[in-house]
Design brief:
By secondary structure, the protein is mostly helical. Helix content is about 70%, strand content about 10%.
């Protein structure tokens, strides 16, 4: 029940625009053939940004993106977009952490900052 309440508050207070932004970024990346490897990662982040409580970000152990190719793609992502996206989530997290009620939201923003730094080779899974 607490997860549901936190998710609804997150959704109302900014989760929906954040998820739409990540989804549209994924569409833009899909249009540019060069950005195609990042499209699914952006959509994965959009799903996490929409309803984050009850989910966690994990590193994929298998697959092409979990090896050297994923590392190269993450370096390119970090240079072009990852660092400033993560910085934005970090700044928002600091603002949320100032209030006691905002601490759970700050933790989720820090998780979004983490995945924004290097999204390739990461997955979002449900926590039960």
């Amino acid at each position: 029940m607490i997860r549901f309440i936190l998710n609804v508050l997150w959704f109302i207070c900014g989760g929906l625009p954040l998820a739409i932004g990540w989804f549209l970024a994924g569409l833009l990346l899909a249009i540019t053939v060069v950005g195609l490897p990042y499209t699914l990662a952006a959509w994965r982040i959009a799903g996490f940004a929409l309803w984050p409580f009850g989910k966690e970000i994990v590193r994929r152990e298998t697959g092409l993106a979990s090896g050297p190719l994923g590392a190269v793609l993450n370096v390119i992502w970090f240079i072009l977009a990852g660092w400033w996206l993560a910085l934005g989530h970090l700044i928002i997290a600091v603002g949320e952490a100032i209030t006691i009620i905002g601490i759970p939201f700050a933790i989720k923003d820090l998780q979004l900052a983490q995945i924004a730094l290097a999204p390739i080779g990461r997955d979002v899974r449900r926590v039960d």
